[in-house]
Amino acid sequence: MKDNYLMSSLGEILEGQTREGDLYEPIDKGRIRCYACGHACPIPDGAAGVCKVRFNRGGRLFVPWGYVGGVQCDPVEKKPFFHAYPGALAYSFGMLGCDLHCGYCQNWVSSQALRDPEAVVPPRRVTPEALVLGAQAQGARLLVSTYNEPLITSEWAVAIFKEAKEAGLVTAFVSNGNGTPQVLEYLRPWVDLYKVDLKSFDDRHYRQLGGRLQPILDTIRRLHAMDIWLEVVTLLIDGFNDSDEELTRLTAFLASVSPDIPWHVTAFHQDYKMMQPGDTSPDMLVRAAAIGRREGLRFVYAGNLPGSVGDLEHTSCAGCGHRLIERQGYRIRRYRITPDGRCPSCSLPVPGRWSRRFDGQTTVHRFIPGGFGALPVVNPR
């Protein structure tokens, strides 16, 4: 009874933090179809979509608005973006809810807030202007929608990103990639960078997580065609998505879209409801990376195990092999890309989004907003 009360109370709070959405159309008899994610839910009057935060009220779609579930300043490398403004700070915000239900989710307290009674994060009211001011006060270069699934809160993200772009900030989505043509066109003018989690290359595995493979593959193709800077991450899980055959098909697909898409293969650790299998080893990451390189990907990285994966944390020129960026974890140790984004040794352009100069590694204290209303800020050091 207590768990149901908590869930209904949070649902009631979030229902008050809404406005009419943009990404829908009427079907019939009060039903509407939502286009925020690949489920494209047909929603009867009085019901919610799969995400549980977009709902039909009187034949109109209402969507999350005016709050955050969390805010934090991170190195851009943590998102991870390795080919976009290295060393910069990413001011990251998230809301609540998700269109998938991954058992290993590291952000489950926000993403599963309306499915799991243990995942209760109070929303904090905020305005787009306040978030932009918070990012500027931290010295951030980027404003990033992340933590929960940003596609299901796209209207709110666009409102924030309009303010961010006026202030000269770079904008980004960190997403599962379960998109639709409608939502990607909606985001297109406002999103500069996009990270997709390609969790598997097996539709059966995606259905275990509550989704399908095809919408994610379509999103990757569309993002690349739209010239939104794209990086792809695969969390490598023993016995789930780590077979040579699956990794070969996954990386061959990415290379067929573009061999210049950076692919990050990262280490799983036990979390949330997934206490098996064991954590990913460095050897597993190195093996997966070798498959990606063999299939033609030019920029392959291994994450979550800093110092244990050889050269797989660094960026090297795809032409001459000259080391361009040296990293350890999220830290930039050396930067050699020219102001016009080229290798200094052979002048080959390096795919990505680069600053005219490297301003060094920016660091801040970990930032967590405290309480409702205005968001307090920790000054950079």
Features of the shown structure:
single chain, 381 residues, alpha/beta, TIM Barrel, eight-stranded mixed β-sheet, three-stranded antiparallel β-sheet, 9 helices, globular, disordered N terminus, disordered C terminus
Which SSEs are present, and which pair or pack?
Elements: H1 2-16, E1 18-20, E2 24-26, E3 32-34, E4 42-43, E5 55-57, E6 60-64, E7 67-68, E8 70-75, E9 89-94, H2 108-111, E10 124-125, H3 128-138, E11 142-145, H4 154-166, E12 170-175, H5 181-187, E13 193-197, H6 203-208, H7 213-225, E14 229-236, H8 244-257, E15 263-267, H9 282-294, E16 300-303, E17 315-316, E18 323-328, E19 331-335
Helix pairs in contact: 3-4, 8-9
Walk me through this protein's architecture.
There is one protein chain. By secondary structure, this protein is α/β, with parallel strands linked by helices. It has two domains: 63 residues, no CATH class; 269 residues, Aldolase class I (TIM Barrel). The protein is 25% helix and 21% strand. It is built from nine helices and 19 strands. The strands form five sheets. The chain has an eight-stranded mixed sheet. Strand 15, helix 9 and strand 16 form a beta-alpha-beta unit. Helix 3 crosses helix 4 and helix 8 crosses helix 9. The radius of gyration is 20 Å and the shape is globular. The N and C termini lie far apart (47 Å).
